[in-house]
């Protein structure tokens, strides 16, 4: 009977270790893709707007520039960039807490093997809750970045009209 409990605990531990490794891989992918995509659209929009204005003036196309609108559009893109960086940080922190939860689960299984039954998983639950909060904040910031980008685009279009 004791040997069977040990085998079940080892299987659970191995499963928790596999989940931990998957969380680390997920953290890396989130960091790379989220940062790249959102920074690209918001930063690229700022550069694109500068390039558009420069090219139109260089070709002698008269533009009616509404500088207030253009400044607000740039602020929209800046807010988008800041929200992107914050969303990236939230993604990292959420995965950090989820990974800690997995580590605590592994340690609990180790205690179970060494000391007998240990059903206390409060530390795991606390990390999952913390990770969930950072995850939700990251989702909100991501949508905020997208909204700021769209507002920046709208304001930029309104600020640069043919004369």
From TrEMBL:
TM annotation in the entry: 34-56, 68-93, 134-161
Annotated keywords: Membrane, Transmembrane, Transmembrane helix
Protein's name in the database: Uncharacterized protein
């Amino acid at each position: 009977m004791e040997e069977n409990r040990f085998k079940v605990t080892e299987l659970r531990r191995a499963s928790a270790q596999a989940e931990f490794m998957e969380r680390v891989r997920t953290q890396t992918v989130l960091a790379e893709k989220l940062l790249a995509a959102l920074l690209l659209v918001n930063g690229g929009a700022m550069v694109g707007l500068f390039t558009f204005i420069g090219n139109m003036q260089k070709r002698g196309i008269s533009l009616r520039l509404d500088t207030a609108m253009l400044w607000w559009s740039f602020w929209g893109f800046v807010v988008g960039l800041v929200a992107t960086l914050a969303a990236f940080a939230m993604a990292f922190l959420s995965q950090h807490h989820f990974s800690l939860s997995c580590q605590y689960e592994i340690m609990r299984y180790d205690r179970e093997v060494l000391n007998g039954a240990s059903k206390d998983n409060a530390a795991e639950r606390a990390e999952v809750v913390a990770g969930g909060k950072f995850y939700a904040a990251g989702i909100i910031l991501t949508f905020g970045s997208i909204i700021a980008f769209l507002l920046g685009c709208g304001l930029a279009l309104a600020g640069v009209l043919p004369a």
